[in-house]
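Predict structure. Chain length: 128.
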Amino acid sequence: MSQTVVPVFNVLIRTHHITSRKKVAKLVKATDKYACYVLLRSGGSPGIIYCEGDEEGVKSWVSTVQKLRYKDYQLVSRPNTLVLEKMDAKERPERGHLHEVVAVKEFGARMESLGIWEWWRHAMGYTP
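Prediction complete.
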C-alpha cells in the first residue's frame, strides 16, 4: 500500500507592526482552523509572520491575514512549496499552533532551526 505525500507550503508576511491582541486572537483561531504552524514576531516594528501547512490551509490563512488590514502589509514570499536547506531539519513543527516571539533575532533563530534560514534572509531583503 503506497502513501500519498502532501507537500508542505510556507509563506512569509511583513507588516509595520503587530500589536493588536484582538487581531492576534483572530490569527490564533485561523491557525487552528487551517491546521498551520505559525510564528509571529509581535510588539514592535517590523511585524513578521511565518506560516506553513498544506497548500489550501496556507492560502486560506493568508486570506485571513489580508482581511485584518495590517499597516504596510507585504507578502514577501508567496505561498510556495517548502524547500529545506538543511537535511537534519526534516521534522516539521506541530500544526495548529501559533507561537510568538518579541525579537527579530529570536525569529531568525527559529527560522534557522526550521532549516530555512537563507530563504528567510532573502525574503526579508537581508541578502540579494
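Summary: The mean pLDDT is 91.
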